[in-house]
Amino acid sequence: MTTRPISTDGAGIPAPSDEHSLSVGPNGPLLLQDHYLIQKMAHFNRERVPERVVHAKGGGAHGVLRITEDVSQFTKAKLFQRGKETPLFLRFSTVAGELGSADTARDPRGFAIKFYTEDGNYDLVGNNTPIFFIRDPQKFSDFIHSQKRRADNHLRDNNMQWDFWTLSPESAHQVTFLMSDRGTPASWRNMHGFGSHTFLWYNAAGEKFWVKYHFKTDQGIRNLTAAEADAMASADPDHRIRDLHQAIKTGQHPSWTVNVQVMPFEAAADYRFNPFDLTKVWPHSDYPEITIGTMTLNRNPDNYFAEVEQAAFEPSNLVPGIDTSPDKMLQGRLFSYPDTHRYRIGPNYQQLPINAPAVPVNSYNFDGPMTFRNQQDPVYAPNSMNGPAADPAPYAGANYNVAGEIIRSAYTLHADDDDYGQPRALWENVLSETDREHLVGNIVGHASAPEVTAETKKRVVEYWSNVHKDLGQGVSQGLGLS
Ligand code: NDP
Ligand code: HEM
């Protein structure tokens, strides 16, 4: 005979029944004193935390980063030293849809990694594209509103999307990726990941470099056509979560080759593109990718809610050897993520096991809802009681000069900066004939939605003509405008 554990309430008290409420006789009314029933219903009412305001639908897995090359000349970050193995958690996501939306929607994919390093957590919160739609965080909430739902009818609206994009020409590069078949990857395993921003690396001698991260899928790039993605959205809207879970469960551990592009610190000032503009890549001919290691996902979460839903990534989690850059978008994100976590999960979200570092926490942060860290005295600094004390030494080398007038302004342009040159290079030099046909077809399909006005369609054609006249011509013909 198998013995079963006895069910309990959250306090560990044996449950009186899993089936019957406490009533006055078998047919009588229920009693307020049935505290077991009340805690069960009350807890159920609080089972959800608010979903993420963006990137709500996703899945994730645990894994490991292995560094195979010596990059100590560029960074002293401990996780990037040759031979190092660092445990990590990676969450993939779509951006605009809600928690129950289809995994195959045309959207960038989130690629958010938390590295549990010996210097605390390092978070790299990137996407599957090396660039983004905008270059100033001032426009982020407006951009997201245009991708989500209207105020009056609560519907998503392609007119709103094209209205925003065509009035924001800096979006052209990212929208080219989005409207290509890379906007609908076949699985999370079959796409690259990018840190997207430019970050600062500094070495033990205090020398500084600018760096971009590229995680190249070892499974190969595979995408769906628009028709395949639409079909999958109804056949299996959770396909991406299922695919990742099944692959790991059956021992097919997905992996990515970890590459970086490294720019000497001084080269940024007169590089032909603004190296901090998030709508631009650094062409490989200028800065080739250098392989530094490999990342493998090898363990499924035990509990989706505890590990995936409550995972809290923040670009402000940086460790010695790595720092921010003057990228305005990165600067905006440094504030936004910890702020949204304090609201969505609570101010002590860092104490949850998925977010807690693998090293001791000696913070002077104190109390707050749901705290379970055993804060010791003294609870303030400076103190004369031998409490924890800051050590600036690991950060030596991160400092650099900035100066200027305090103004609201676009970035100053570098020699080759414009909004259309890089998407044009993608169209002219990288996309195959089939890729181009699909890009035109996907744009036309999207901009043909009934809500897209004639005025917006004209701007859509202008926008794509600015990228390339053949692309503009194809879109114009597809929309019946020429
Ligand atoms: P390269 O020819 O050296 O690199 C082209 C890059 O494009 C490769 O990283 C390639 O890597 C990627 N690529 C291939 N097919 C597609 C596709 N259908 N959609 C998106 N990316 C694709 O040229 P440059 O470095 O000079 O860049 C030219 C253009 O390529 C850029 O303007 C940009 O649009 C795009 N690109 C550049 C990247 C960079 O970091 N330099 C990164 C990604 C794209 P893979 O096939 O492995 O994805
Ligand atoms: C999630 C804000 C730009 C990648 C989020 C969330 C917010 C946010 C509030 C929800 C976080 C949560 O509830 O856990 C912003 C702001 C941006 C910005 C203000 C610009 C100013 C970007 C860029 C990228 C990116 C440029 C990629 C390069 C992600 C990812 C997630 C996310 C991957 C999901 C993280 C997860 O899996 O939990 N963003 N974002 N975001 N963002 Fe951004």
From TrEMBL:
Catalytic activities: 2 H2O2 = O2 + 2 H2O
Cellular-component GO terms for this entry: cytoplasm
Location of region: Disordered: 1-25
Matches recorded under InterPro entries: Catalase, Catalase_3, Catalase_AS, Catalase_clade1/3, Catalase_core, Catalase_haem_BS, Catalase_immune_responsive, Catalase_sf
Annotated Gene3D superfamilies: Catalase core domain
Binding sites annotated in the UniProt record for heme: 337
Record flagged with keyword ATP-binding: no
Keyword Oxidoreductase: yes
Residue numbers annotated as active site: 55, 127
One Pfam family matching this protein: Catalase-rel
Catalase core domain residues: 8-389
PROSITE patterns on file: CATALASE_1, CATALASE_2, CATALASE_3
Origin superkingdom: Bacteria
Reported cofactor(s): heme
GO molecular function: catalase activity; heme binding; metal ion binding
Annotated family: Belongs to the catalase family.
Name assigned to this protein: Catalase
UniProt organism field: Nonomuraea endophytica
Lineage: Bacteria, Bacillati, Actinomycetota, Actinomycetes, Streptosporangiales
